[in-house]
Here is the input.
Amino acid sequence: MRPLRLLLLADTHIGFDCAARPRVKRRRRGPDFLANLTEALEPALRGEVDVVVHGGDYFHRPGVPDAVVRDGYRPLLEVAECGVPVFIVPGNHERSRMPLPLLLVHPNIRVFDRPRAFSVRAGGHRLQMVGFPNIRNVAEKGLARVFAGVPLDEGADVRLLCMHQAFAGAQVGAQDYTFRFGADVVAAEDLPTGFAAVLSGHIHRAQVLEESLDGSPLRCPVIYPGSVERTSYAEREEAKGYARLQFAADGNGGRLLDAEFVPLPARPMLALPLHVRGLTAASVEAVLRDRIAELPQDAIVRVQVLGSPEADIARALTAARLRKLAPPTMNIDMPRGRTMVGRHRID
Here is the structure.
């Protein structure tokens, strides 16, 4: 029997930077997220995987416009129409429930709208998927209590646990912040036995955890595919993509054979430090124009003003002015009232 082939993606954040009635004409990042979601699902459309799992935060917020929800579901529905089983974990950005749930009524789509288990035949295997939507204070509740009453299929060839939580040992950000303890952090000792792996969203950096914080082996690996695009500057150095996994039966819930991270074409995200001491408003614009010309034309740029600018410089560096200095293919901004040092606030 060949291995079970699974495609895992998460944190697609459809609806990011989407405005129903935009007041400012600029490049919106929403299409980047939808394009990478669509590209990530192409192996399923080509028949290269047996199962698709979305680990949560399908959408960026609960109030995404209905038109964005319909467009966001379309790639997933195409996969389901091809006969591939799809499993979805609602994340914290969806407030643990999927919007317009009637659009997901399809025999090949299952949503973990509560702690529950699904059993299917996939790739010649008897597969059981156990999961739950994002739960706040999950550590205080404990996984044993979360799954109380959820029956396990003892005859399953492969059994997988799906969730959207932070796990102790997961790392995020440019400073490699490590989750250790907390009400929203799942501890190693809370992992159940009898599972081939934990498949999770929520952590935007792709990683596979195999050891606990004290170095002892986990009961099963915890796999994060990461987000499909960069949502904050803390992720600027991280590759974005999805995971292709292979599992084999072993008589005890299965085992992970291979985990491959597949990168997606995430746009470059860059910081542009701008030293303004001794500059005038006119010279600042000239410096900015030259600096911007050196950057990739499709970059996402955050201007970091350093020094104490004069009032005329502060007034000149508006968001509208920055957009005029940059090509239309670029996203450029300046954090409000945080990056500029001095007494002048950028609004």
About this structure: The two ends are 62 Å apart (CA to CA). The chain is about 20% helix and 30% strand. Residues 62 and 95 are 7 Å apart (CA to CA). The chain has two domains: 4-263, 269-333.
